[in-house]
Amino acid sequence: MATLFFQGHASFRIQTSSNVVIYIDPFAGEGYDKEADLVLVTHEHPDHNQIQLVPCKDTTKVLRASDMLVDGNYRTVTECGVKITAVPAQNKNHKITECVGYILEVDGSKVYLAGDTSTTDYMKNMHAMALDYAFLPTDGFFNMDVIEASACARLIGAKHSVPVHMKPGTTFDQATADAFEGPGKLIVRPGQTVEL
Question: How many Cα atoms within 13 Å fall on the side-chain side of residue 174?
Answer without folding.
Answer: 0
